[in-house]
Amino acid sequence: MSPNIDLRLLRYFIAVAEEGHLTKAALRIGIQQPPLSQQIRVLEKELGVTLFNRLPRGMELTESGVALLADARAILAQLESTVAGVRRIAAGKMGRIAVGFTESASLHPFVHSVIRAFRAAAPDVALKVEETNTHELVEALRQKRLDLAFVRSPVGDATGLTMETMLVEEMVAALPVDHPLAAGVRKNGGKVRRNDSITLASLAEESFIMTRRPSGPGLYDTIIAACHAAGFSPRVMQESSKNLSTLSLVAAGLGVSVIPASLTRVNAEGIAYLKLSDAPELKAPLHLAYREGEISGAAALMREEAIKLGAQQKRR
Predict the structure, then answer these.
(1) Could you tell me which residue, 86 or 239, shows the higher pLDDT?
(2) Which residues neighbour 161 within 8 Å (Cβ) at sequence distance 6 or greater?
(3) Which domain holds residue 202?
(4) pLDDT digits over 151-189, tens only?
């Protein structure tokens, strides 16, 4: 029958072997000498061997004891390494994490900042990223292919998912730079000033370019609802699969669009960006999504970094 050895006995054994004396070993590990001597005998009985020669002035390892000492040290070192490893995984310092984001979210500097902060806090975590539309991100979360996802708004039923709002940004109009409504921007060298704004209603007769609804249903529905609130139904003449493609079509003079303000950071020539003065409800939220009641150590750490950075932005 294989012996069932308490790891504590191995620690006692190592202390006696290294000190070569029961009294010194007892002082080192903080127990009395008689119980320590008894525990060594328990270990010898479990193994069926003599580990020490009892000398008048100390303890001397037998050949079996010498062999056990090397293995005992290795066993305890491996245990300590394993414990440290699982604790680092639980703390988000080791392991792996899969993160997804929509295209509009990936272009927001907040997302870049979160990933940089996470990498600095957990450089040993294997990070996998995926960019796709909101619907596919939600499905990937449900199927446990992703741990976290930065999305604008959920698609349909978000049961089983937690959606935490990290920030909310304004949406702005994107017009061809030679559009009559963009005259003020042209005079300012293409830069939007505080008073460079138009009304959403002023775009009622324009041709709209929209990112297809399956790619970004939350923003799509928000824009349509805002146009209805402004008294018109937008004439959607072109649709694209990506926000960057939408901006390219605007730059080509094929129509106008409404985009999250963060996309104005894209260095696209031929586009004028103007604020919308009559659509206070036209906002673009950025959510962090994950499965309810299930978040790994690494995912929890990234969430903490996101909340921290979100709070910093709100204070600005």
Answers:
(1) 239
(2) 138, 141, 142, 154, 289, 290, 291, 292
(3) 169-284
(4) 987 656 678 899 999 999 999 999 999 999 988 665 444
Same domain for 73 and 136, yes or no, is: no
Give the CATH number for residue 228.
3.40.190.10
In this structure, how many other beta carbons lie within 10 angstroms of the beta carbon of residue 217? 19
Query: Above 70 in pLDDT, residue 36?
Result: yes
Q: What is the pLDDT of residues 258-287, one digit of tens each?
A: 999 999 887 778 999 999 998 888 999 999
Whether 120 is covered by a domain: the verdict is: yes
Q: What residues contact 229, with CB distance under 8 A and at least 6 apart?
A: 279, 281
| Residues sharing a CB contact under 8 Å with residue 230, sequence separation 6 or more, in sequence order | 199, 200, 201, 204, 278, 279
Asked, for residue 229, whether it belongs to a domain, the answer is yes
Residues 176 and 280 in one domain: yes
Together in a domain, 277 and 293: no
Task: Work out the burial of residue 130: count CB atoms within 10 Å of its CB; fewer than 13 is exposed, 13-18 middle, 19 or more buried.
Answer: middle
Q: pTM (2 decimals)?
A: 0.71
- CA angle (204, 207, 208) in 5-degree steps: 90
- 170 Cα distance to chain centroid: 24
Q: How many domains does the chain have?
A: 3
Same domain, 159 and 291: yes
